[in-house]
């Protein structure tokens, strides 16, 4: 059986989760199976230099465009699926993967399971553990092959990077599909990280929707100042306009690895954890003892965040006055 | 422009979720049902597009409490509201409802279908790409801005780390909305009362047409806590402990 691991990268950077997809495929391959990595983009050299853990690499090479719209990615992938008849296609849960996985599932008619954390293979069927309800429930699913899985970043350890032998690389020209595609990229906006770069911050105080309103952000900001920390927010906080986008941590925000991450009123949805679960010290404050943030926290407290901020601020203030 | 916006009612997962006796679903009896957050943004984006360039907005809702949310949609500016019948007490699977949404999009001659980018019940895939693929219309998910210029759409999508990519595509199209261009508006009680007279249409579901799918065997709660230490629920003692933990790690002071 062939297993296709979908990979991604842009701006001459291969996404780390690409190596995770290859590792996931590798872990399911049995004797005689073949792990085929699929890459669409400009940095085909990067793909060839990194995806050595796969048996074979198919690259759809774009010469001009840095970002391949998911629509085009799915179209190119569909051709590969038709040509290769794989038993399993692994797609990362990324901005691209969100569109690609269900698109190819609809067009092949194959089953799809999303937000996958664990996979076990029993011959021609799989049992899968996937996350639902923001990580509060795990669903054990069964699926017959061929199938498509959308896999959470971080669920599998990266495959070792290394070069793939040139004979195992097959190149497709992606330019015609990009030119004729129905979805055309017209601009990329990269923010000015000079304003704030959370990825280099050593200490972060992150507020979630539990903070309630914009005015209350100041309480957390004062605490952050006392701790010499940057203030950050979960997605709803940023969507509500209470903090600027560059201060968002998570899947569509920044991936951070500070020495201290104090999470106040953050539930710990998988998309949030993706951005911060590697922090050295995670302290979570949330009134809901079942909040998934506690699954990654080194210290957890179930008190009201406002009471905690007040008490902690008092103590830190008193300490600094001494 | 004809816009169809899909509103899914899902259990409020901020509260405690309990498993049903069959072990394959959650106990829905005492749960509050609320509009999927992302669908709320999809509705807002639909109304913003209507305000910007004129459009007819049809809101279709599925799940427990659909009528209530449709009245809210009417109060916010939806022109027509339709409840799509769903099985009672069942999870709403995108894979299952995609064919119904595609059929409605055709029947209403929709130019644009807007769905929330995802719902927390969607373990078998996202709605927008399913509907887009079934209709063979272009689709983009994770959008946070949509601008229409006649039949041409400019759509901005989040790609992570603050990077945003703008695409151009022509209608008819399907978009999965992450965030509306503006935060969803509130509606006054009087508007809601007025909108409560809006007649609610009914639609019957189409068969999904997929021969095979995955199946949920069991649901379970994740093992709690990891290896972390629980400091308890008393803010004063927690604060004391945190001060000493931070001090011990050299993190207490600026
Ligand atoms: C494609 C995609 C990308 C995404 N990207 C991101 C991302 O980059 N970052 C991100 O964060 N999310 C992201 N999300 C959203 C994510 O799924 C969650 O919706 C979000 O993380 C929830 O934010 P929250 O924890 O602040 O809010 P909620 O889930 O509403 O949680 C609020 C928490 O506060 C607690 N609380 C309330 N009041 C108090 C109090 N007084 N004291 C203590 N605790 C209290 C509650 O118990 C609750 O657990 C993304 C989603 C998608 C689909």
From TrEMBL, chain B:
Residues 23-212 form the Electron transfer flavoprotein alpha/beta-subunit N-terminal domain. Keywords: Electron transport, Transport. Gene3D superfamilies: HUPs. It comes from the Bacteria. Coiled coil: none annotated. It comes from Rhizobium loti. Belongs to the ETF beta-subunit/FixA family. This is Electron transfer flavoprotein beta subunit. GO terms for molecular function: electron transfer activity.
């Amino acid at each position: 059986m062939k297993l296709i691991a979908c990979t991604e990268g842009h701006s001459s950077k291969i996404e780390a989760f690409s190596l995770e997809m290859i590792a996931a495929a590798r872990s399911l391959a049995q004797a005689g199976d073949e792990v085929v990595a699929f890459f669409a983009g400009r940095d085909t050299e990067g793909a060839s230099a990194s995806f050595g853990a796969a048996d074979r690499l198919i690259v759809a090479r774009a010469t001009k465009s840095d970002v391949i719209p998911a629509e085009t990615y799915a179209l190119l992938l569909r051709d590969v699926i038709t040509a290769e008849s794989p038993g399993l296609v692994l797609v990362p849960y990324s901005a691209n993967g969100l569109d690609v996985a269900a698109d190819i599932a609809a067009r092949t008619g194959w089953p799809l399971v999303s937000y996958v954390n664990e996979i076990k293979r029993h011959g021609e069927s799989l049992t899968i553990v996937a996350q639902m309800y923001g990580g509060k429930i795990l669903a054990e699913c069964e699926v017959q092959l061929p199938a498509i899985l959308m896999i959470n970043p971080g669920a599998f350890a990266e495959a070792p990077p290394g070069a793939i032998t040139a004979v195992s690389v097959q190149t497709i020209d992606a330019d015609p599909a990009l030119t004729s595609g129905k979805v055309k990229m017209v601009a990329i906006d990269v923010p000015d990280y000079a304003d704030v770069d959370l990825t280099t911050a050593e200490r972060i105080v992150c507020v979630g929707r539990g903070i309630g309103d914009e005015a209350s952000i100041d309480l957390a900001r004062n605490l952050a100042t006392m701790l010499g920390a940057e203030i950050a927010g979960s997605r709803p906080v940023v969507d509500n306009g209470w903090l600027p986008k560059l201060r968002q941590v998570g899947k569509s925000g920044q991936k951070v690895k500070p020495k201290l991450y104090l999470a106040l009123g953050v539930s710990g949805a998988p998309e949030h954890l993706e951005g911060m679960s590697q922090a050295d010290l995670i302290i979570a404050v949330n009134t809901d003892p079942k909040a998934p943030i506690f699954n990654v926290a080194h210290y957890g407290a179930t008190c009201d965040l406002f009471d905690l901020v007040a008490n902690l601020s008092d103590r830190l203030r008193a300490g600094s006055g001494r | 422009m004809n816009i169809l916006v899909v509103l899914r009612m899902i259990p409020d997962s901020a509260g405690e979720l309990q498993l049903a006796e069959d072990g394959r679903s959650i106990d829905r009896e005492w749960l509050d049902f609320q509009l999927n957050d992302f669908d709320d943004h999809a509705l807002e984006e639909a109304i913003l597009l209507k305000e910007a360039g004129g459009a007819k907005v049809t809101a279709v809702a599925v799940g427990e409490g659909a009528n209530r949310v449709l009245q809210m949609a009417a109060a916010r500016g939806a022109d027509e509201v339709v409840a799509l019948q769903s099985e009672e007490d069942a999870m709403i699977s995108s894979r299952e409802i995609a064919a119904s949404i595609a059929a409605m999009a055709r029947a209403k001659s929709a130019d644009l279908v807007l769905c929330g980018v995802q719902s927390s019940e969607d373990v078998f895939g996202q709605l927008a790409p399913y509907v887009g693929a079934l209709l063979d219309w272009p689709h983009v998910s994770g959008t946070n801005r949509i601008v229409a210029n006649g039949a041409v759409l400019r759509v901005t999508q989040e790609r992570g780390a603050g990077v945003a990519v703008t695409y151009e595509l022509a209608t008819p199209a399907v978009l999965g909305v992450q965030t509306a261009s503006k935060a969803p508006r509130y509606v006054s009680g009087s508007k809601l009362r007025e909108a409560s007279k809006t007649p609610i249409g009914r639609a019957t579901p189409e068969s999904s047409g997929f021969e095979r799918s995955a199946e949920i065997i069991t649901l379970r709660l994740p093992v709690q806590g990891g290896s972390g230490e629980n400091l308890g629920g008393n803010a004063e003692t927690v604060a004391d402990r945190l001060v000493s933990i931070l001090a011990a790690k050299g993190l207490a002071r600026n």
